[in-house]
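Milestone 3.1: sequence recovery, worked example.
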């Protein structure tokens, strides 16, 4: 009986050990299976996040490219506006300064009035390009110098206009006197007053050219420096 009890106790002990070990095995296996399933889910989530990131990244690149193209195109138009204004101002300036006296004669005094009209056309173009420049450039220092230059050149251009009108009138009057002079008239005495007035006008005009140039040149040099700086800044802002 005692032996049977001992055997039963041993069997019970083995049964308990088997149960404990089996439970531990299946519990560990269950955790392993759960871990694999969790890893699979996490992997799926990571892949989805990566795909979403890639999609957002491509969209961001596309938007940046559009922004880059827009900025580059704007910089291109800005530089074009600066250079166009620079050219038109110089055209206005040169034609205002260049009044070729050799072309003024008794036979072509209408050239003077044509010259005056042409200078006015140059001024109109300067104003058009000035307003276009304002659409693209925000630089107070540049526009302050431009305004000073324009005022100074307008004043000078008005003096050119007055010179042209007065000179044309003198030539016209002298031409009329010559045309209707009598054979007995002393033509030199009749025309000399007009010639003297013409010479006076030419002398005064030449003095104004020199005076204007002395005042305008330093300001124009300042303008040129600012233009170069602005163009350089635009080149640096251009997105590769």
């Amino acid at each position: 009986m005692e032996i049977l009890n001992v055997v039963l106790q041993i069997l019970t002990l083995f049964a308990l050990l088997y149960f404990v070990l089996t439970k531990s095995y299946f519990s560990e296996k269950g955790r392993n299976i759960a871990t694999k399933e969790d890893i699979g889910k996490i992997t799926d989530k990571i892949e989805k996040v990566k795909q979403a990131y890639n999609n957002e990244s491509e969209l961001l690149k596309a938007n940046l490219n559009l922004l880059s193209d827009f900025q580059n195109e704007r910089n291109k138009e800005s530089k074009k506006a600066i250079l166009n204004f620079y050219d038109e101002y110089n055209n206005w300036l040169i034609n205002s300064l260049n009044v070729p006296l050799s072309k003024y004669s008794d036979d072509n005094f209408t050239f003077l009035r044509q010259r005056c009209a042409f200078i006015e056309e140059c001024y109109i173009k300067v104003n058009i390009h000035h307003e276009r420049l304002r659409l693209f450039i925000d630089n107070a220092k540049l526009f302050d110098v431009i305004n000073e230059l324009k005022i100074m050149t307008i004043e000078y251009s008005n003096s050119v206009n007055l010179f042209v009108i007065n000179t044309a009138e003198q030539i016209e009057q002298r031409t009329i006197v010559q045309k209707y002079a009598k054979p007995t008239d002393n033509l030199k005495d009749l025309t000399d007053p007009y010639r003297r007035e013409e010479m006076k006008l030419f002398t005064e005009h030449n003095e104004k050219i020199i005076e204007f140039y002395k005042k305008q040149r330093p300001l124009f040099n300042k303008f040129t420096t600012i233009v170069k700086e602005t163009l350089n800044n635009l080149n640096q802002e251009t997105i590769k």
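The helical segments are 2-97, 110-136, 140-180, 187-237. Residues 75-237 form one domain.
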